[in-house]
Amino acid sequence: MAGIQIEQCADLLYSTLQKFEKDQFQIALKHQTSEVCNRWFKKDKMVLDGGDQVNFYIQLKNSNNARHTRLYDVDNVNVAQVISEGTVKWTHAQTAWAFDIRKVAMNKGNGTRVFNYLKSRVMAAHHDFVNLLEEAAWRTPTSSTDDMNPHGVPAWLVQADSDNETGDFTGYVGDYTNSADTEDAYSSVGGISCTSTTNPRWANWYADHNNNLDSSLLKKLRTAFRKTKFQTPTIAGMALDPESSFYDFRLYTSSAVLDALEELAFDHDDRIGADLGKYAGATVFKGIPFVYVDDLDTELTYSRGADPIYGVNHKHFHPIVLSGNNFRKSKPKPKDNSHNVLEGFVDLSYAYVCDNRRAGGFLISDWEGGN
Fold first, then answer.
1. DSSP state, 98?
2. Is the pLDDT of residue 5 over 90?
3. What is the helix (H) or strand (E) element at residue 205, kind and residue range?
4. How confident is the model at residue 21 (pLDDT cuts 50, 70, 90)?
5. How many percent of the chain have pLDDT more than 70?
6. Helix, strand or coil for residue 10?
7. In Å, how far are 34, 94, 216, 322, 330 from 326, measured between CA atoms?
8. What would the mean pLDDT of 323-343 be, rounded to a whole number?
9. CA atoms within 13 A on the CB side of 160
10. What stretch of H or E contains 216?
């Protein structure tokens, strides 16, 4: 009598997962929030049709052609290179699951048990993918030769070069995240050089809170909002930068910072002001809720310091995804050298890009962990 064929198992997988919509088991989640997968890759992502890398363009210099004139003045138009091109390589990621058709045969006739077995394998693979993406978003590659990990938020919103920065556009280039947590600086950000004299308008706003998690932190937050909230100029009916608003702005921080802010909000009085408060169980600043990211509880001395607060404008910072590899699910296939085993894969090609670091957000942290 013929048994279950591996092709039948592939079809059984799809029909079973479609038949049962309600999960029959629980998952002990690793991270308290899934901001990256639930929001970034759903609402904030952009999709590109092709290309071997992501290219973006930003004006960092002036042409100096605007002037007041007299009658009959002679024109003198300056032709200047004001546009810089940024580049980011694709990051490729995948998750996979496998199951043995003999396990399906053992549970033949019991749809619920077949479902539990198949669904648990697939869900475990997806859970691994979530953890990978959530963690990588708050890190940088391990070195300049690391082409497997993405340039996450700390690659774009970085610390200043020196301690005790009270707040300014002094976040020039960041550091790689190596296992020894030693200093290893980028040479550029998105392929664009940035120093106090070279492309200074490519720098992000940074302030050192010096581990003073008290009301002085609110002053730095107010300044950060004021300095990075660029009003969109309009001339001759044309908006020059319609993305530079706080329409899609979010705040991310550690547990220690949230504890301190919640205490301040609880003890709210006229000295604190109306900016900090509570709404629907969340701590908010200027109406924007803080999102707890457990990865930010870990000090990374050079790439983000200790207890960071990231203000991120998601109109400027977002994942860009390759359309042909946008969480692409492959059909289950037999595993090499294991004829009883089916494998399935989900693939993704993406890159994080901040196309305007000056308006893209800010970083406030304990500079290099108080070193």
1. E
2. no
3. strand 204-208
4. very low
5. 82
6. helix
7. 18, 11, 43, 6, 12
8. 85
9. 20
10. helix 215-228
**pLDDT value of residue 24:** 47
Give pLDDT tens digits for 271-322.
555 688 877 678 899 889 999 999 999 999 999 999 999 999 999 999 999 9
Question: Token pair for residue 57?
Answer: 């363009």
Nearest to 228 by CA among 305, 300, 310: 310
DSSP bridge partners of 53: 89
The structure tokens listed for 107 are 């549970």
Using the CB atoms, write b or e for 180-203: b if 16+ within 10 Å: eeeebebebbbebebeeeebeebb
Region of 64 (left: φ > 0; alpha: ψ -120 to 50; beta: rest) is left
Q: Mean pLDDT over all residues of the chain?
A: 85
> Residue 220 and residue 191: Cα distance in Å, rounded?
30
> Over 50: is that where the pLDDT of 25 sits?
no
Q: Where are the domains of the chain?
A: 1-16+32-59+83-371
Q: How many CB atoms lie within 10 A of CB 318?
A: 22
Rounded to whole angstroms, the Cα distance separating 40 from 320 reads 10
Give the whole-angstrom CA distance, residue 313 versus residue 364: 15
CA angle 86, 92, 93 (to 5 degrees): 140
Quote the longest CA-to-CA distance of the chain.
Answer: 100
Encoding tokens for residue 337? 């050298």
51-69: string of b/e by CB count within 10 Å (b at 16+)?
eeebebebebeeeeeeeee
Q: Half-sphere exposure (CA, 13 Å, Cβ side) for 191? A: 14
Weakest-pLDDT range from 4-18, 37-51, 163-177, 210-224: 4-18
CATH class of 1-16+32-59+83-371: alpha beta
DSSP string across 273-319: -SSEEEETTEEEETTEEEEE-GGGGS-BTTTTBEEEEEEEETTTEEE
